[in-house]
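Dear U.,

For the methods section draft, I wanted the exact inputs and outputs in one place so we can describe them consistently. I've listed the two proteins in the order they'll appear in the manuscript figures. Please don't edit the token lines directly; just add comments below if something needs changing.

First protein:
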Amino acid sequence: MIVEYVTAVPHPRPEAAAPARSGRRSLALALLCGAAGAAVALLSSRQDWAAGTVPLAGGDFPLSAKGSDVTGVPAALAIVGLAALVAVFAVRRTGRHLVAGLLALSGLGTITAAFQGLTDDSALDEKAARTAGDTAATASALTHTAWPYVAVLGGALILLAGLLALRYGRLWPTMSGRYERDGTPRPRRRAAPVDPDRPEELWKALDRGEDPTG
């Protein structure tokens, strides 16, 4: 009588697959938040943040100040955040934590600068002084738009991407080592033997600079 032994194949444990799923989800969310946050911050810096008027001889002259006129910090930090988001995949361990921290700080700095720009009227006052030709002239009838709050939202998204990188960055992939050149010379590929009975192969070998008789 033949007795058959059936060996049970172990299935992967759900708890072992959980970190991989968390890594993929956090990676996708961080990329989405980082890219969207940088785009929003850059877009808002090109829009009007404040408006006002300056009195002239012919009446009140309208003035406006874009976000880049008020502060250049959100746009600059958005670019830094994008660079840090890409650099996260080029470094490992301690370097990844440092770059993730830079990403989070970029978002925090964007939020702070945007909040400060909510009540900053210096850009309008400078335009009023130039327009009136009087250094003492200031803008009046001041109004502010919602674009600084949009910049705050962009900074919050960048900050979230940085926090995700700090928390889950160890589970994310890194650039493959096969793309890194270590300076080791590659072995030369040996030429295939040439069949002397086929003249076309002899000519091809000569064209390649090989000795078909060797």
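Second protein (the one for the lower panel):
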Amino acid sequence: MAKTKTHHGKLVIFSAPSGAGKTTIVKHLLGKYGEKIAFSISASTRQPRSGEVNGVDYYFISKEEFLHRIAHKEFAEFEEVYSGTFYGTLRSEIERIWEAGKHVIFDIDVEGGLHLKRIYKKDALAIFVQPPSLEVLAERLYGRGTDSPEKLKERIAKADRELAYANKFDVILKNDDLDTACSEAEQLLENFLKS
């Protein structure tokens, strides 16, 4: 018996160091293009932050369950982003969105974004959101007030390493001014979905 072919859409990947503005840009695009795109909810072993909802912001799962799913090849990509804390994209999440007839939009860390681009090639547009500087990024992270001083140091060190990956992406989107970055992101999305 022949298997029915599911809808095959495109992937729009926004990656950046923590604090660069990728989440704000992705939320802007979802607000404007919600009929065409849907957000890929990542799985994570970290604890939910205040106000975060399981199945909306992330799929919050235990480390044991995460490792079980890795063993069963359920992830399109995953990594241990911070020591002992895993993040990943479930294959079922991409398929869920494609079956709804939409394209997938990602708000994902740099390594994960590049991994998805390697897998999905021409069906994926990988956009690196570049902050004005590492100093501005550090100010934004401190301003959030969501992390301990040790966690902030770890995030800033990781951001410094991630900035070196920018040229491996299809596009570098500078986020010096949020309104400009959002309108440039709209143009990138529209052009890619038309291609």
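Candidate sentences for the figure legend, describing the second protein: The domain at 11-194 is CATH 3.40.50.300 (Rossmann fold). The chain is about 45% helix and 20% strand.

Thanks,
Y.
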